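Hello,

I think I submitted the thiamine diphosphate job twice by accident. Can you confirm which output corresponds to this input? Input:
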Amino acid sequence: MTYIKKPAIRHPGLRQNNLGLTRRDYEGVLSTLCAGCGHDSISAAIIETCFELDLPANRIAKLSGIGCSSKTPNYFLDRAHGFNGVHGRMPSVATGANIANRDLIYLGISGDGDTASIGLGQFSHAIRRRVNMIYIVENNGTYGLTKGQFSATNDRDSKSKKGEDNLFDSIDLAMLGIQLGAGFVGRSFSGDKDQLVPLMKAAMRYNGFALLDIISPCVTFNNHAASTKSYDYIRDHSEAVDKLDFVPEREEITADYEEGQTIYVKMHDGSMMQLHKLSQDYDPRDADAALATLRKRFTSGQVVTGLLYIDDRKQDLHELMKTTKTPLNALHMDELCPGRAKLDEINKEFA
Amino acid sequence: MKPKDATAARRGVPPTDISNPNYFHKIVDCQWACPTHTPVPEYIRLIAQARYTDAFMLNWESNVFPGILGRTCDRPCEPACRRGRLDEKPVAICRLKRVAADYKGDIEHRLPKVPKRKNGKRIALIGAGPASLTVARDLMPLGYRCVLIEKDPQGGGLMRSNIPRFRLPESVLDEEVDRIVDMGLETRYGQEVASLKSVLDEDFDAVFVGTGAPRGKDLQITGREAGAANIHIGIDWLSSIAFGHADSIGKRVVVIGGGNTAMDCCRTALRVGGKDVRVTVRSPRKDMKASEWEIEDAEKEGVPIFDNHAPQEFIVENGKLTGVRFAKMKAEYDEAGKRTLVPTGEEVVFECDDVLMAIGQDNALPWIERDIGISFNEWDMPVVDGTTMQSTRPNVFFGGDAAWGPENIIWAVAHGHQAAISIDLFCKGQSLSNRLAPGASLVSQKMGIHEWSYDNDFSGDRRVPVPHADNQKALKDLDVEVELGYDDRLAFQEAERCLNCDVQTVFERDLCIECDACMDVCPVDCINFTFNADEANLRERLRVPAANEEQDLYVSDALKTGRVMAKDEDLCLHCGLCAERCPTGAWDMQKFTYVEAQASPSCAAYSTSYLR
Ligand SMILES: Cc1cc2nc3c(=O)[nH]c(=O)nc-3n(C[C@H](O)[C@H](O)[C@H](O)COP(=O)(O)OP(=O)(O)OC[C@H]3O[C@@H](n4cnc5c(N)ncnc54)[C@H](O)[C@@H]3O)c2cc1C
Ligand SMILES: Cc1ncc(C[n+]2csc(CCOP(=O)(O)OP(=O)(O)O)c2C)c(N)n1
Ligand code: SF4
Ligand code: SF4
Ligand code: SF4
Ligand SMILES: [Mg+2]
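Support: Only one job matched these inputs. Its output is below.
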């Protein structure tokens, strides 16, 4: 954290997006996290993503639980809606909000503790229900806020800062996400915005549950030599399976890739994902194959990154439940509350 | 992301060599632009701390006339000030200098001591302007005997004879001239040198010519001779007012010319009887030579400016000047943007009682014999070495306006410093290229995790206007100073606007873990982590393309990922947020001190104490 406020003055040459906003219009208050925390880079990537997608902040709802990671919604998009829930309960809040108003973009921010420990049940059911949201796990393998206990994503062969062994196996949230039916699963690293920002853009445009497991070093408690979530370790062990170019609607595809190595996915808003395979044996459209490779690579000590799984035909919660297309707050009173006669009619069905 | 081939990454812009003091000096835009390299941000911080005496000493050591310059300097530092590039006005550097001079305490004991025992060398200084006075100040603490020869009855040069008292009170001028005279300077006031040879015949060890550019340009058009009684050369007229040889002018005055002299002429005329005083310029207003603030002050006092007016004739009736006829002009530009003034065909006559001509000055050195080893060039100007100020006769040096034509006070001082260094080397029989390098140092300002020994917070305040005396009162009296100066509160507010450009962002490549924290926090998007390339390409690819090529890029050697850190220095606020957000201390805020060498180290003693 810092004592001074970030000066409001900005570079006069700062680019504006189609809404006439600059990147700085998407900021929040100055972060109070430890200097160098990976979570701050993720906030910066979110700012970049929303700026580049020309998203108006008032179309976005930021939701989070408890943890250093869950604090970060304060540090970006200060003109967006927000709800900071209790530890591990962000998915319930997101589900409820999404049911009530399907017109907003739901951006859930969580940590590995918030998601893989206390919130694992909530997390699983939000995926199962296919809530249309972006779910970001800022994964540092530790409970940062409570001073560095092992989290459930901490790898078994990793040690604590003080040298204690971790006795338990780790949960791979990306694999879990694929198994539970998330239609968009990606993994990236806070220190690689070139990979992270296109993934975030695509996740924002994806209709359904989009999970991003983002390795985000905790410089204070889990960035030491025996950590598997440190800046150095991730830079040495990460292996991207593909390279994603996100091409907004109306823009031409310019990157040229070899035939047969490229997958095009059309998003429901007309934008396009151009996915260049970096690994021959990897196909992000085949869940079984993807899971198999993820397991194999994990065993051999690799951290696989990129867009790991995509299913662009999945229906979301609203489609499954055939709910009204109109957000509840835009419905008239007589539609929301059809009256006694209608209630009697419904009750008769159960008689 | 895998570390890229390190040699490939090393192609492109080579890592910045920050051990070269010019790199960080250039970032201190004001100090770099100042001809004497006054440590501006350091004295501004001292003013903010109400340490006016210390602020004065830093100034005095570097520019010799803080009280005078704090009112009259041409201030090349201000157009250079970084704040001006951030969409607003520069820091009022000049007026803060005046604050230091006005509120300082006793400095007597802090001045360099002049030895009683002299070193046996005698130096003649011809002309008592700022250039000669600087040479005297720099040489006397070394034991030189300096003899100042001046045709006017008092010292100060144009600062006394031409700069009007309402801009520069006599007491301020006297104080700063006397401070040098009182060091034991021998003065021969009222003696006009008519032959350089005769001065050389007095066996001086060296002679410095600081006689300025004393001849005002004339305009030879119809009526010039017939109307002569009421047509005055501006600088001569100002000087006759200054020395009391004249004390009035007609009611209707036409000033010809658009420079600072014209502004002083019209404002002086208003105070000695002029009622309808107008300034006329040949060129469009935007091309006027006068400083923006001088024009503003003249207009505030009610002087209209007629641009695109080219004088054609002085109209003289019955032997008396009655007016000036002008042709109206318009500016036309060719494709290269070159301007030509063409008459529109329209003409006007401005009726008047007097005309003041302020269209420029020339050097006049008829008193220098052409057969004593001093070469003159095709424009009849002496040939003077740009660094040493030496003429082609080894024991004769030039400086100030006498060297290369009219400039300003601060340049005269800068020349004086260099001439003093040369004269000292010359008298010691050493090569003039044996000049000492400037002193430079970098000192970390870190006091704690979020604490710095400078005020790193950014002030969003606009430039604080300097209070002015009431117009009615000021126009009645030539001696009433128009600008009142800042009080301590306003001075503090203005001082806080300074960005501390001397507190440098210093990057230690080996400590960087590429977490992006500095890049993300920087309020003005200076910092980038990207792949190296040739400079044009690199500038283009930054977060905000680095369009201002006058400002450098700070580029590191390749980092672990093969990328480099590339910082565009252009708009850095020196706020220190990058260093606060850096988890490893790869960024640090370090104060850069730069002190020019002087002939006498005791003249830079306080400034030098800042070097570590
Ligand atoms: C009207 C006017 C206003 C100005 N306002 C400003 C301003 O606000 N700020 C600024 O920075 N600059 C200003 N200037 C310019 C500035 O005054 C000069 O650039 C500066 O004074 C030059 O200093 P100098 O030491 O070279 O010589 P000068 O100041 O010109 O001094 C030369 C001295 O030499 C004497 N001299 C000349 N010939 C002889 C001789 N043969 N024998 C003996 N003595 C001789 C002269 O009498 C004079 O005193 C102004 C100039 C004018 C004309
Ligand atoms: C119900 C409840 N149980 C426990 C806590 C204590 N607690 C606060 S944050 C946290 C773990 C946060 O870890 P993670 O989500 O990984 O966030 P990080 O700080 O690492 O970003 C815990 C256990 C709590 N706030 N509430
Ligand atoms: S404790 Fe760890 S996770 Fe929390 S702010 Fe500090 S570095 Fe980030
Ligand atoms: S902001 Fe201060 S240090 Fe920077 S150029 Fe301006 S006066 Fe000089
Ligand atoms: S000091 Fe650092 S954070 Fe502040 S403007 Fe300069 S580079 Fe940016
Ligand atoms: Mg965590």
